[in-house]
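Protocol step 4 of 6: structure prediction from sequence.
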Amino acid sequence: MNISRLLSRNARKYPTHQAIVTEGEVLTYQELNEAVNQFASSLHHRGIGLGDKVVLFMPNTKEFVISYFAVLRLGAIIVPVNAKLTLEELGFIVDHSDAKAILVHEWLWETCRDLKTDELLCVKTGNAQDSWKSFETLLKEGRTDEIDCRLTEDDEATILYTSGTTGQPKGVLFTYRNILTVSTMMCVEFEMKPESRILHMMPLSHSAPLHLFLVAGTYVGSTHILSPTFTPESLLNLVDQERITHFFGAPVAYLFTAKMPNINTHNLTSMKYWVYGGAPVSAEEINIIKEKLGTDLLHCVYGLTEAGPSGTLLTADEHLEKGGSIGNRGALGTDIIIVNEEGEPAGVNEVGEILLYGEGNMKEYYKDPEKTKETYMNGWLKTGDLARKDEDGYIWVVDRKKDMIISGGVNVYPKEIEEQLIKHPAISEVAVVGVPHPEWGETVKAYVVSTLGGKKLARECKAYLAEKLASYKIPKLYEGIPALPRNATGKILKQVLRDEIQEVKS
């Protein structure tokens, strides 16, 4: 089995069933499959074939979906990239992936018009321009005859690039088996069916929206509602108007939506699975989201790109007592363990690193065998996440291993401090990092987005934390900034903050 055959099978089984709904346009599964054949045949006519890498630079549009399946139908390898990347970031991925073609949406063409394209097949939506061919022209010229992709589950399918929060992004190479494993998990764990209506607002260039929702939904013949951008208002409107049953968003998307004053004017009763993941979220924030959405159907997924993604899940019922944790078991097809520094299973409430095992785990980092070897321990994928397991077996993420601060030989976890500071009514964002110190090794510094300023910021934060944290955890240094640096996926770039820091004089 391969992903292309999922679509062609649905075209036979559900020819008139809605496959894509976007901006007032509807494509049935038969119409989508025909469009995929047309575009694939035109790409093939222009030299794209087995094993070629094709970069896909588009927001969540019908052209993204058509391009994605068309490239896979030819046995080529798809390389979806985030629509918010800069020219330099895009150029790195095009070069590193050995791309033979790039497919770009008209909205993003200005970003890449100066891209080096001498040896690339370049296609953009809208009119042809310079060396760029028109997507619509290629689609129109193509043939609707069925193209049968005969690749197996062991063949390579996709390269997704990590967000690069600590350096250049790494290319994560997946086989069809990896992707089908995690999509099957999602179908089972979250009850996806042909009548499911899945809303895609998070970028389809990311592993969770792409593999866990687009591929999984296609596996069972669900309807995909596409939105090129996210706003809280559009989320509420689309859930109401399109009777959405499944939605995945980062916690920040839920928190922004929870602040909408008119949230109660929308009918959200069609929703069966409000799913979140991709960033830490506290129990307090979860309760706010549940109250504002008026739902007990909030579900957490934990994983990482290199795992497909797969990992753990926290069901809606478990949120009542364990909100803020990531669950107590691996998702379908995935095993999880927490190991200490000696590589042995960690005890109750002992902090260790999360390791994952399953067929959803990546094949390798593209062109980086050494990094691939470092990331695996006896077949288990090292996540880089530090966590503890409580007396009931539930797992609580403590922090990223690379973000842990060692001050005076004691481990300090920034996430614990951030979760306390963010509760302060005058603080909207916070990031805690380690600062080199000549005597203590590191000391703790907080970057804060706040209405407080100057010396008052430090005094207020220290007083606020005094009864909440041990003294060695309370940051000694504070700096107010207008906004935290983030990458194209919205993740905080702590490395940018660290790079600006000079060693503290004793």
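Step 5 (inspection) to follow. The radius of gyration is 23 Å.
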